[in-house]
Design goal:
There is one protein chain. By secondary structure, this protein is α+β, with helices and mostly antiparallel strands. The protein has one helix spanning 3-29; strands at 31-32, 45-47, 50-54, 59-70, 73-84, 91-104, 107-117, 122-133, 136-146, 151-155, 159-161. It is elongated. Strands 1, 2, 3, 4, 5, 6, 7, 8, 9, 10 and 11 form an eleven-stranded antiparallel sheet that branches. The chain has a single domain, classed as Sandwich (lipopolysaccharide transport protein A fold), CATH 2.60.450.10.
Length: 166
């Protein structure tokens, strides 16, 4: 190997190591997400163009400009399946599809689909996830948001663009 190739390879290794060092804490620790702590007891409000209820399996399907609000959080999608807990009128889980937007405080995320487990206070967004936090943007295939902790974990080929403020 020539001296020039050795220097180029060494330079590439330094750049790769620096990128892994910068990205490592973000991937391992996740990111903060919105102002969602202590919203578990807040009522869930759903608005949509249409509603179809299936009493036999305890589900309801909202379609057309669906917006779900709980505290400071807003979730919007073309279609949302609501699954009720057995033997109660309490919502157990929401499954949004067709292009989902989640907004909380200054943070916003988009994905193809999302599942919201009300009891666990966890939202899992999947498919071309895009998270915007101020001027910074992250993308991945999956994001899991813990509403109690106000954190999110991203996985599946994470890409980050961090804008440095002056």
């Amino acid at each position: 190997m020539s001296v020039e190739k050795s220097i180029a390879a060494y330079g590439f290794c330094l750049i790769a190591a620096a990128c892994l060092w910068i990205a490592g804490p973000v991937a391992a620790q996740g990111v903060a997400f919105g102002a969602m702590a202590d919203q578990g007891d807040a009522p869930v409000e759903v608005t949509a163009d249409n509603l179809a209820v299936n009493q036999s399996d305890g589900t309801a399907i909202f379609t057309g400009h669906v917006v779900i609000a709980q505290g400071a959080m807003r979730l919007a999608a073309p279609k949302v399946l609501v699954i009720y807990a057995e033997a109660s009128e309490r919502i157990e889980r929401l499954e949004a599809s067709g292009g989902v937007t989640l907004v909380s405080g200054e943070d916003a995320a988009e994905a193809r689909n999302a599942r919201y487990d009300i009891d666990a206070q966890v939202i899992v967004m999947e498919g071309d996830v895009l998270l915007a936090q101020g001027p910074s943007v992250m993308s991945s295939e999956r994001m899991t948001v813990d509403l109690e902790k106000g954190t999110a974990q991203m996985g599946g080929r994470v890409r980050t663009i961090l804008k440095q403020g002056k």
